[in-house]
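Reply to dn_fold:

You asked what the input looked like. This is it:
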Amino acid sequence: MAQDNAKFDANHYPTLLAIDKNTGEVRLVAVNPDGTIAAGGSAGSASSGDSTHMSPEDFSAVYASPTTLTLTGFDGFTPTTGQFVSVKRQDTSGVSATYTPDANAFSFNPTTGVLTVTGAAFTATDVFVVTVLGREKRSDKTADAKKVASVIPLENRQTSLLSYSVLNISTTATHYIDVSAYDRVVVQFDKTGGADTLTYTISATAQDDGTADSSCKYDDITQYGTVCLSGIAAASFTADCAHQILTKGIKYLKLTITPSGGANDADYAVYVSGCN
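and this is what came back:
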């Protein structure tokens, strides 16, 4: 059995994936809390682990030539050559052969979906079981199906909440943003043209009782309730700036832009994004 090495400590007990080089058999190897290792059952021709994708259950593998297969139908990811574990072919008489990257060079073209296995002897009537390590899967018991779960950390998921441009502002403008679904928000303000000065402030409210956003009670947080990403904290700003705000527990943000100078020619843009 070929087994990956893994580090573990008292708080983390990894699950390893082991491949039998002779048969191509896939097994799960669990590390117990006491540090001992217990091997799981054989994978057969179905997916054996949350991150193990196998044809024909999870994607399609079709004969293309004696050394190539065309792979389609990967759910939510495109593998690289290094993610392939093995290819098992079985002919109509039941005779099988297994190819692994250790013994046969693998090469996968993600554009065409063609997997090349050096030294293979595929035939058009073979049945193919291709094993790939991919994204984590979850069972959907109600649909008796498998789901591919996104493993992107929540803090890397960003949602645009506001993208707004104004030309020739002549009176104070106010923008209200509902941030109750986000732990952090970034607000970016840019003056994009004109001679007038624009003064920019940020206020917040925790009032969440059904009152309209424009009628809630707000407190100014420009200087002490934000992290200025483009300068020194201040009570207001007249230059381009960006702020990060911890919004957990906050219902609405209010952005106030006030022109001065009398030319009524100032332009600006505001961008707001939220993440958890």
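The CA atoms of residues 177 and 195 lie 28 Å apart.
Hope that clears it up.
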